[in-house]
Amino acid sequence: MSIEYLNNKNEIRDKFLNLLRTKLDLEEIEIKDLEIGIFNASIDYARSLNIQLSWNSQAFVDTYNNISRSIYSNLNKDTYIKNTNLLSRLKSKDFLPHELAYMSKEELFPERWEDIIKRQKLRFKEAYEIKQVSMTDLIKCGKCKNNKISYQELQTRSGDESMTIFFTCIVCGHKWRT
């Protein structure tokens, strides 16, 4: 089916437009621009998955409904998402209405994702950070006999066994584990 067929008046699109008109405080031009963006994003997504571009295709209808539901739920501050700033950001022209459908979840609701992303980055950093310690009498490099050693503890076996400690000599680069 061609895109022209999709562009014809459609009951699904009309219902969504009416929902936007009744539930959101937006101008008519913004509502139409928003819906066109959702429609275009649905087409782009469907093409990427080789979904038939037809309102008779349940996969395409589901794609359109999922994107429109996601955008509406983020715009309406009374939904379970509780995104209180997105509608005001749209009204203050931080972005154009048709761009909403292409925004990531982090862009739609940065306030919610900011803390989650920070914690994830910190966890990632801590997991791969090498702890350096000088163990003068306890650990010495078997190759150069220096005591400048960095180590990392990892659980490589089952939980009831002790952790494996990986050592690296800072001076010569020799690596070993215990």
From TrEMBL:
<keyword id="KW-0863">Zinc-finger</keyword>
<dbReference type="GO" id="GO:0003676">
    <property type="term" value="F:nucleic acid binding"/>
</dbReference>
<dbReference type="InterPro" id="IPR012164">
    <property type="entry name" value="Rpa12/Rpb9/Rpc10/TFS"/>
</dbReference>
<dbReference type="Pfam" id="PF07500">
    <property type="entry name" value="TFIIS_M"/>
</dbReference>
<dbReference type="InterPro" id="IPR001222">
    <property type="entry name" value="Znf_TFIIS"/>
</dbReference>
<keyword id="KW-0862">Zinc</keyword>
<dbReference type="InterPro" id="IPR036575">
    <property type="entry name" value="TFIIS_cen_dom_sf"/>
</dbReference>
<dbReference type="GO" id="GO:0008270">
    <property type="term" value="F:zinc ion binding"/>
</dbReference>
<feature type="domain" description="TFIIS-type">
    <location>
        <begin position="137"/>
        <end position="177"/>
    </location>
</feature>
<protein>
    <recommendedName>
        <fullName>TFIIS-type domain-containing protein</fullName>
    </recommendedName>
</protein>
<dbReference type="GO" id="GO:0006386">
    <property type="term" value="P:termination of RNA polymerase III transcription"/>
</dbReference>
<dbReference type="GO" id="GO:0003899">
    <property type="term" value="F:DNA-directed RNA polymerase activity"/>
</dbReference>
<dbReference type="InterPro" id="IPR003618">
    <property type="entry name" value="TFIIS_cen_dom"/>
</dbReference>
<dbReference type="Pfam" id="PF01096">
    <property type="entry name" value="Zn_ribbon_TFIIS"/>
</dbReference>
<feature type="domain" description="TFIIS central">
    <location>
        <begin position="12"/>
        <end position="136"/>
    </location>
</feature>
<dbReference type="GO" id="GO:0005666">
    <property type="term" value="C:RNA polymerase III complex"/>
</dbReference>
<keyword id="KW-0479">Metal-binding</keyword>
